[in-house]
Amino acid sequence: MSPVILVSLAVMVLALCLAFVRLFRGPTLPDRVVALELFSSILVGIIGVIAIATDVPSLLDVAIVMALMAFMAAIGFARFLERGGPRDD
Amino acid sequence: MIETLEGGLILAGALFMFLAALGVLRMPDLLTRMHATTKAATLGTALIMLAVALHFAEVAVVARAFGVILFIMMTAPVAAHVIGRAGYIVGARLWAGTVKDELKPHFDPLTRDLKSGAPAEEHERRPPDEPDAS
After folding, report:
1. When you count CB atoms within 10 A of the terminal residue's CB, does the N or C end of chain B come out lower?
2. A50 has a chain B CB within 8 A of its CB
3. ipTM of predicted complex
4. Do B13 and B41 touch, CB atoms closer than 8 A?
């Protein structure tokens, strides 16, 4: 693996850790949903970089499915919250 | 030439994703966090997918990479809008330095009624003497 790929993977894993901190202590549920969205975006990026590193183009399908699932999850969480999720203030 | 361009795209994408994660960690409230993550993470993913398209340079892979970019650019604003709206309705607290909250006079936090700007139609649509059971 070239150093560029290693460095970018390290940076993205660091980004995942920061997003996990927000997911862990986010004060409200929408904050956690935002952190999950960010998780999925970073995972799509990581899968893309790994597809480059291993020369396996089929991994892009995994990235597509990942993006799709994240969108559905966000819509589902938002519907759940609007239809009477816990109110906090 | 292609490889240096590709490396630059990968590094820029990773950097933008790191910025998005930093924003989601450091920003003070829900809407500013979404402002940080949605745009920066979308740009980072798009840059990395461009690098993938450059690296493989086959029709099928390039089409798939651009499909991912298009999909993310279409769904990220929708998801952000929906989450932001849900957060406002649930009552996520805004930052103390918020200058303007234009939704506040139109939204009743107890009944979760969101009124539009037109006040005339509103009384016609509601039944006159419905007990307020909600």
Report:
1. N
2. no
3. 0.89
4. no
- Beta carbons of A42 and B51 less than 8 angstroms apart: no
Instruction: Report the distance separating Cα B68 and Cα B7, nearest Å.
Output: 20
Buried b / exposed e over A18-41, threshold 16 CB at 10 Å, is bbeebbeebebbbbbbbbbbbbbb
B56 contacts on A by Cβ (under 8 Å): 57
Q: Which residue of B has its CA nearest to A19?
A: B21
- Give domain limits for chain B: 2-113
* Amino acid code (one letter) for A48: G
Q: Which helix (H) or strand (E) holds A14?
A: helix A3-25
Contact B37, A38 (CB under 8 A): yes
Domain assignment of residue A89, yes or no: no
Instruction: Search chain B and give the residue with CA nearest A80.
Output: B86
pLDDT, tens digit, 9 for 90 and up, residues B76-101: 999 999 999 888 888 777 888 888 88
Instruction: Count the domains in chain A.
Output: 1
The answer to whether residue A87 is domain-embedded is no
- For A3-62, how does the pLDDT look when each residue is reduced to its tens digit (9 = 90+)? 999 999 999 999 999 999 999 987 888 899 999 999 999 999 999 999 999 999 999 999
Q: Which residues pair with B114 in a beta bridge?
A: B107
3-state percent breakdown (helix, strand, coil) of chain A, nearest 5: 80, 0, 20
pTM: 0.84
Does any CB of chain B come closer than 8 Å to the CB of residue A53?
A: no
Answer yes or no: are the C-beta atoms of B73 and B66 closer than 8 Å. Answer: no
